[in-house]
Amino acid sequence: MTSQLTATAAHPVLHVPPASPAAAAAYFGASLAFHADVSDVAAALAADGDPGFVLLDSRSAESWDQGHVPGAVHLPTALIPEQARNLLDPAVPVVTYCWGPGCNGGARAALALAGLGYQVKEMLGGFEYWVREGFEFETREGREARDADPLTSPVVSDDCGC
Q1: What's the rounded Cα separation, in Å, for the pair 43 and 41?
Q2: What are the pLDDT digits (tens) for 10-48?
Q3: Do 77 and 109 contact (CB within 8 A), yes or no?
Q4: Rounded to an integer, what distance in angstroms lies between the CA atom of residue 66 and that of residue 146?
Q5: Contact present, 124 and 132 (Cβ < 8 Å)
Q6: Which residues, at least 6 apart from 107, have a Cβ–Cβ distance to it below 8 Å?
Q7: Three-state DSSP class for 151?
Q8: Are 146 and 154 in contact (CB under 8 A)?
């Protein structure tokens, strides 16, 4: 047992021990309160009826024209303080997105909206993963879709099982 503990402590993954189950449950529960998955957003938007939230693209006009999620509201982060009240109902939760996981624009937009009193979540993966998972998107030329990337979406099923 002692050799296992010594080996574990020397291993970089467990150099800092995992959190307690209670702390982990609190952290991951909180994470789900702040984030939404691309597939879950797509399923909610595709279902009949009101999804219960507004999807907000926080990128520039040029980025919006290059491609965006159908049905999303376009409101660049810099314009949120002056235009949010004209475009968004404060009683309806907002899910923000930006380019992708290498961009924190969706988080900045969510922060700006939260500061104005909106309930917000960020769509993990942003527009990049929307496209990579094979969901339809709009450009200035019209709608299109690409084949799903097998590294981000199951090839033979619509359900990843997670």
Answers
A1: 5
A2: 678 888 899 999 999 999 999 999 999 999 999 999 998
A3: yes
A4: 14
A5: no
A6: 96, 122
A7: coil
A8: no
Amino acid at 27: Y
DSSP secondary structure letters along 13-40: GGSSPPPPHHHHHHHHHHHHHHEEEHHH
Q: What token pair was written down for 64?
A: 């919006």
Distance CA 14, CA 137 (A): 41
Q: What confidence tens digit (pLDDT) does each residue in 139-156 have? A: 999 999 999 898 887 776
Give the pair of three-digit tokens for residue 84. 């949010």
Give exposure, 78-100, as e/b (b: 16+ Cβ within 10 Å): eebeeebeeebeeeebbbbbbbb
Record the pTM: 0.88
Distance set, CA 112 to CA 81, 84, 143, 151 (Å): 7, 10, 30, 32
Q: Is 123 exposed, middle or buried (0-12, 13-18, 19+ CB in 10 A)?
A: buried
What letter would DSSP give residue 148? Answer: P
Angle CA 88–90–92, to nearest 5: 80
